[in-house]
Structure formats: C-alpha cells, structure tokens
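Researcher: Structure prediction, please.
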Amino acid sequence: MLTIYAPLSNPKSKAWEIFDGVKKSWPEQVVVNDNAMATEPLSNSMFWGFVNNNLDLIKKLEARRHQYWFTDTPYFGRFDNSNLKPNNHYWRICKNNIHAEYIKNCKADRFEKFNLEIKAPNFAGKHILVCPSSEGIHNYLGRPNWTNETIEQIKRYTDRPIRLRHKPRGRGTSGPSEAKVPLSEDLKEAWCVVTSCSIAAVQAICEGIPVFCDDKSFAVDVANTELSDIENPYYGGPEPWLYSLAYQQFTPEEVNDGTAVEILMDKGIMQ
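Model: Predicted structure follows.
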C-alpha cells in the first residue's frame, strides 16, 4: 500500500498534479492522509516538497530506514504558471531520497527534448557564485547555517570575489520565473558554482562551469565536494548524468497514463 501525505486543506496545490495521477496509475492500493495532521508516517509513503509536516515525516522514515517517495520540481522543463498544460512541464519522482540517483546507461531521448546545449568546460571565470538551497533543504541536511558557514569556508581557500544568489521567490512560488536577474547572467564569468543541493547546478554544468556541492546533492557524481579544491575544480563529462535525471522526471500526463510507473520499473527504481 502507498500512503500519500498531501496538503488536503489546499485543493489548488500543484501537488495534486502528481497525486491525482498516482492514484490512477500506481500498481498498488493508494490512500491519502493529511500531511498537516500526520506525526507518525507509514512506510512506503509519498510526499511533495517540504509542505506542512513533510520534513519531519521524511526524517523519521529515513531514521527507521523505511521506504518513501519524494516528488518536487524537475531538473528541466519547470512549470510556467502562464502556460500550464498536462504535457508541457515536469515533476521529479525519487525513491528514498529527495533527489534523483545516478542511473547509468540511460538513453539521451528524454533529455534531448529540452534542446539544451552542453558547452565545453570553462576555466576562465573570475567570481564564485554561491547558490543556497531553500531553508527546508538546509534543515534536511542538518545545516541551517549553510550559507554563512560556506562563504566563510570559501574565503579560507581563495580570494576570488563571491557573488551570493538566493533562491528566487515571489507570488507564492519560487524558481526562475521569480528571478529579478536570470541565472544565466550570474553564471557569466563564473569560476565555479557552490551550492548545497540547488538545481542551479544543472544549468551551471551545462554551461561548462564546475560545481561544488553537498555530498547528498544529486550532482555529486559530476561535481566537487571539497572546497579546499576550489582553485583546482574537477569537471567531468556530464551527458550520462543528465540523461539519468531526465529519466526521473515526468509530466502530469505521464504520471496519469502510467508512463512514469513503466519507466520507474524499467530502470529498477520501482520493484
């Protein structure tokens, strides 16, 4: 049985884009509980973001080594509130983690839909771009003071200028649509990007810019984790990793019609 912990008091939440489809296509019985009231989660649960009590529930499941599913914003193809259709935006679905794992030998087809250019490595930048994740992510990592601690640590190893880019928020949402300055502008002439788990890492890597991240980040397989190496960053071929990310995010239509379940089973994520 799958237990969905949902924001029952908010029927307009985008969580229902995933949950309504899961109720139709998931290959086992599905029940829905109120995540604002729950305190003791059941094993094999599903969550959308860190809404209401989700963070506490997830931490309890992890401590007990119980299975859970986590859904949230995608790595490519984020929603646009002005043009919202069931087949034109994506949500990630992850098992026993808040981010995708690295699945080897994925095809390029799902990634190629986004027509993203992967540029050659660029080691000519000047400033260091620090991109904190959300407060919820930092609390999940057990590092509520991540931003200040990280900036102080960077200063121990380099005198390069540091540019801080907070997660854009506004109009009750977050992400690129709320940014006053596009991420692409801050990435110009960047030596590297330092983040905990921000999806900004994807755009940076596609731009050929090295990334430093937390060891629990989805980018850990193609990024650096030791800030002591900030003057000698590693940058590897990201294509297989990008293909893997694309196979762990789905449109509401794909969740509804069973495509998401089929792919999760094919990749060995769902068994």
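Model: The first strand starts at residue 2 and ends at 6.
Researcher: Thanks, that helps.
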